[in-house]
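Dock 5-O-phosphono-beta-D-ribofuranosylamine; give full complex structure.
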Amino acid sequence: MNSAGRIAVLASGRGSNFEALCTSDLGGASVVLLASDNPSSGAMLKARRLGVESIPFDPGPGRSRVSPEAEKSLADLLVSKSVDLVCLAGFMRVLGGALLESFAGRILNIHPSLLPAFPGLHAQAQAVAHGVKVSGCTVHYVDSGTDTGPIVLQAAVPVLGSDTADSLAERILQEEHRILPEAVRLHLGCRIRIDGRIVKSRIPDGPA
Ligand code: GRF
């Protein structure tokens, strides 16, 4: 199913998932805006190179959250830009208020582990330290918790005996670049719906 859709990406760092979204087939949708809490992030540089509008914003004084005022301004901005879907792609802060209200069920996050294992920071290092044999990545809808929202897609990646956090992260990243655009296509193509904390496919034999 084809769908026009306007996507905003929030990113704090390197921006490879942002770039994957910009360069992937999103079924007719496109990335119209990058907002970053880090004006000198790689994501901001990539946005300028790719010709995507980029807006730095001040998240306020907290280290891991966005202040209520900043979140309200951001939500107002995204509403004013007629954004349909928000993607958190390496956005290192927890949302708690206005954005979740304005975009309920319309915010996706990519996380580098098979949730609910290893939420939070340094997920790949957590996986290596724990000795799991399989890790991977997860796209989920965002709620007010840390990496707790309904799961849309996951991809498994074997953990090798020789892996460091960095080598595992590199292989997981390849899968992130694949499943985040796929989740966007599923969402904007109206091929999934959220039922409690379960994301259900609207098509027979679709993802569980
Ligand atoms: C990715 O591993 C993502 O899953 C995590 O932070 C990293 C961001 O990478 N949340 P990039 O900025 O998209 O390259």
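Observed: The CA atoms of residues 36 and 56 lie 5 Å apart.
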